[in-house]
Amino acid sequence: VEGELLERKCDEENSCLEKWKVGMRSPIENGGDDDANAKPKIYNTATLTVASPTQSGELPPQYHPNAPPFDESSGATVRSNFQPYRDEFDPTLPHRMPLRNVLNLFERARTDFLGGPDALRKMESEDNIVWVVTSVDNCELCNLGEAGWEEDSNGDVSPSLVQCLPGQSVTVKTNFVSRRGAKIFDCNQMLLVPAWDETMGEYRNRRLAQATITMMALDAEKRRPTRKIPQWFVDKINGGGCD
Fold first, then answer.
1. Parallel, antiparallel or unpaired: strands 77-82 and 129-141
2. Going by fewer Cβ within 10 Å, which terminus of the chain is more open, N or C?
3. Cβ 171 vs Cβ 81: under 8 Å
């Protein structure tokens, strides 16, 4: 695993924002790192933004997420409700859920909609298909200002963060976007929690985090991409809204 620090910004409260380029590759053989002909196999890469909190426990002021809500496609949309446990929260920031645990909730929501582990095992045994995650894009905490709401609006634009507590009900909203005959599909997913909008005078869903997860179908034996997708699965992904 390799990492390169691309950018670092700190303020007077010693809170910092760092951007890293990281990757996982195979070891270089036959000459080591100085061998110009060595070509390691790259398994995956990512660009990460890491923020250290201020002394008051808030996100650093340099962090300004601006990802807009996802546009819904004609594919299926489903909402899944969960109650996170205390150990799913950051021990140093008890009201914040780390992105790694957000991704766990996203995976549970996708799996539940597709029929659970039993349905996926059945696809492997009967249809010779396994599903793998090929990429995670636009993954970020977005619980700030107007950008934090589930939908675009002229609502509350205050920079305050909405608290998420252990045992509190949260919602994962998933919109499926089929590509290449459902051989590949994107899951646009958002983690939502109800919050009071002072401007609108009503409760609305606040986006705590979001990401686009891309899945691909593989032949279970050859581990190569396959287009032999069961029709029931294609219909489920492309089905009417389940919102």
1. unpaired
2. N
3. yes
User: Which tokens in the block code for residue 203?
Assistant: 């409760």
Alpha-carbon span 70 to 186, nearest angstrom: 12
**What does the pLDDT read at residue 241?**
41
Torsion of CA 29, 31, 32, 36, to 10 degrees: -100
Cα torsion through 85, 91, 92, 98, rounded to 10: -60
What is the full DSSP assignment across 11-30?
-TTS-EEEEEEEEEEPPP-S
> Is 9 in contact with 17 (CB distance < 8 Å)?
yes
Strand partners, 186: 177, 214
Res 72 pLDDT > 80: no
Q: For residues 243 and 235, what is the distance between their CA atoms, to the nearest angstrom?
A: 16
Render pLDDT for 83-133 as a digit per residue (tens, 0 to 9).
988 888 877 666 678 888 899 999 999 999 988 889 889 999 999 999 999
| pLDDT surpassing 70 at residue 59 | no
- 3-class secondary structure for 151-216? CCCCCCCCCCCCCCCCCCCEEEEEEEEEECCCCEEEEEEEEEEEEEECCCCEEEEEEEEEEEEEEE
Amino acid found at 218 = L
Contact 148, 207 (CB under 8 A): yes
- Classify 101 in phi/psi space as left (phi over 0), alpha (psi -120 to 50) or beta: alpha
152 band by pLDDT with thresholds 50, 70 and 90 = low
pLDDT, tens digit, 9 for 90 and up, residues 177-206: 888 767 888 999 999 988 777 777 777 788
